[in-house]
Amino acid sequence: MEPDNPLLDDYVLSLARSPRPRVCFVPTASGDAEGYCLRFYDAFAVRNCAPTHLPLFRRRTADLRSLVMSQDVIYVGGGNTANLLAVWRAHGLDVILREAHQQGVVLCGISAGSLCWFDAGVTDSFGPTLAALHDGLGLISGSNCPHYDGEPERRPTYRRLVAEGLPAGYAADDGCAIHFVNGQMHRAVSSRPGAGAYRVELRGGTVEEMPLNVTYLG
To answer: With a threshold of 0.90, does the pTM exceed it?
Structure first.
């Protein structure tokens, strides 16, 4: 989302177990958009890493497990989260990613690539109106709302959905990332001053939004 600001991408690379990480971009949510893949290579080819990508609409890899398990970082692009989950499940990639997570591969992403790891969240997958998504991968318990300050309807919709029974969870402004370890929040970091992260939950019939401590990486 920030082609001229590498702080969050560099933070992700710093978490990898290899000094020259193998980074695989998964562009399923955008329908494997060619331009999106090219932007990924433009961003990561200049870094100390080995970039590749995994297309599924024109699948070229027979053994998905071997490819995924050989990576240090799986980087999921934005787009339609509901479509992403359906395609992953059709190819068995959901099961492979769960195994990769258990083996210490860093899983990350933007927008749909953030939401997909949780139980539930707020999505625009079903049309122009934001709605609840209930069938995420569940690697992180609870719900997620990206673009908390980037789209005017995100915050009120998330609060309303939590009030109506969506699991409590975490929201992040654009330019902010929440880092989880073993399913538990570890820290929040940002690529710009003022970008925030929040715990949002229903307490005593009232939705409460608790700001989290955020470390600016600049």
So the answer is: yes
